[in-house]
Amino acid sequence: MATQLSSEYLTTVAFVFAIEYFLYGIHALLSCCTIYIHFYNKVKGHRKSRIYPFISFILLVLGTSSLVIDSVVTKLLFNGPAGWSHKVDVLESVNLIILSLCSITADTLFVYRLYVVWGNRTKVIIVPIILLIVAYCKS
Fold first, then answer.
1. How many domains is the chain partitioned into structurally?
2. What is the pLDDT of residues 16-46, one digit of tens each?
3. Is residue 65 included in any domain, yes or no?
């Protein structure tokens, strides 16, 4: 690259990535523990829902994909050839779609949990669903 990057900027980027990878490690650990406990915890008389480990796995895969794409984009921005700017834009768009899917998945799980906790009453989830639809249509 033709431009020189300041050491302060590089330190900031490294710090942000260190925090991002640390939080991802916590997320991966909690997801694996959730899946393990759900499948290997033998509680008698307890009906298990398979939606929680499935959603946990989906969120883990989406989070991993987003982290990998973010790392590739940063690598391309720092060391990539000059003609790669359009590929960086495409990767950023894909990352935005992945993060949106992550948000939709987590919000859907939240509404489902709300529905289950309130005894399968649909009146309770009408307002959160309307708010989610408005929020996603607005953005």
1. 1
2. 999 999 999 999 999 999 888 888 876 665 5
3. yes
